[in-house]
Amino acid sequence: MTELTSRERSVKLAAENEGRRFADAAIAAGDWDDEDGAIAGRMVETARRLADGAYFRTGTWLAAAIVAFMAAFLVPDLGWLVALTAVALGVVWIVLTVRRAKAVPALYEKAYYWGMASVREHFAARLEQLQTERRVEREAEQARLRALREAHLAERRRAAEAAGVAVGDLRGPEPQPFGVSPQGAERLVAQWMRSLGDVTADVTQYTSDGGIDVASQDYIAQVKHYTGMVGVGEVRELAGVASTDHRTALFFTSTGYAAGAIEFADRAGVALFVYSAEEGTLRPVNELAAQFYASGL
User: Fold this and answer.
1) Where are the domains of the chain?
2) Which part of the chain is the Restriction endonuclease type IV Mrr domain (predicted)?
3) Nearest in space to 297 (alpha carbons), one of 261, 265, 273
4) CB 254 within 8 Å of CB 277
5) Are 47 and 115 in contact, with CB atoms under 8 Å apart?
6) What is the distance between the alpha carbons of residues 10 and 12, in angstroms, rounded to a whole number?
7) Mean pLDDT throughout 1-15?
8) First CA to last CA across the chain, in angstroms?
9) Cβ proximity of 218 and 247 under 8 Å
10) What's 107's DSSP letter?
11) Which fold is adopted by the domain 182-295?
């Protein structure tokens, strides 16, 4: 790698400083992607200015040569010396002009590259910092929710044992790297419900259940383990069963929900969840599900 000249090092430092300044201004304005090219446009102007200013102003040498020629006529006794000086200045002007014409465009390109690299680096560092802060906040929130769920779970377990109700496994399900069958998904959901505090949740043992796959004293749940999105019709059907059964409806799927299904569930009081058997995770989709996930069933 070619070592930079002192002039290039000076321009590189200035371009990097300008890049960081542009990036800070964009971050403060919330403009992370620079889709309109505002930063790039400003860096073009900055790079041109830095490259142009890194070399002698050839206009100064030209002016000096003109002044020397004029002095040759005004001071006859020194005419030969002034004329020689003017010629020398003229030669210097020509050399600098040619050199400048070749060097400035190349330095301009380098300055632009250095400046934009600084912008990207500054963006990346700030984004990493924000991601770290959000991860810490998320982990703290998850720890808080786990503590709430554990306390709620212990309370429900004591109440169930005092009432003589059989209590199943209260741990959350372990990840299943190879996935599960539809029946395995039902057992998975029952375990999730128990881990959320509904200690009596279990897979239904009969078929004429109105589509109910998991049930407990207070909740009924339907489980859809397939690749399609859950539509409003399926959520409406579960809500109808829950309204006559007088228990709260929970819907679990391995994929997601159509917008209409989420909107209807919010109106009908159906909690929507998405589970991942492979990762062993459960994600609340609507507000009611988020409340259950935070404070337990």
Assistant:
1) 6-138, 182-295
2) 180-273
3) 273
4) yes
5) yes
6) 5
7) 74
8) 64
9) yes
10) H
11) Trna Endonuclease; Chain: A, domain 1 (3.40.1350)
Record the tokens describing residue 143, joined without a space: 């720890």
The residue whose two tokens read 């309370």 is: 155
Q: Which residues pair with 272 in a beta bridge?
A: 251
Q: Are 188 and 212 in contact (CB under 8 A)?
A: no
Residue 160 has which token pair?
A: 């169930």
Q: What is the 3-state secondary structure (H, E, C) of 178-200?
A: CCCCHHHHHHHHHHHHHHCCCCC
Q: What's the number of CA atoms in the CB half-sphere (13 Å) around residue 92?
A: 17
Please name the residues in contact with 81: beta carbons below 8 A apart, sequence gap of 6 or more: none
In this predicted model, what pLDDT tens digit does every residue of 146-205 receive, in sequence order? 777 677 767 766 776 776 655 555 567 888 888 889 889 999 999 899 888 888 888 987
Query: Are the C-beta atoms of 273 and 185 separated by less than 8 Å?
Result: no
Give yes or no for a contact between 20 and 122, defined as CB atoms under 8 angstroms apart: yes
From CA 235, how far away is CA 263, in angstroms rounded? 10
CA distance 187 to 272: 17
Please report, as a single letter, which amino acid is at residue 282. Answer: L
Secondary structure class of 256 (helix, strand, coil)? coil
C-alpha dihedral, 196 to 174 to 163 to 243, nearest 10°: 50
CA distance 179 to 216: 25
Tokens representing 66 are 């003109």
Contact (Cβ atoms closer than 8 angstroms) between residue 223 and residue 193:
no
Phi, psi angles (nearest 5°) of residue 36? -85, 0
d(CA 215, CA 226): 20
Token duo for residue 258: 């159509």
- The tokens of 288 are what? 């009611």
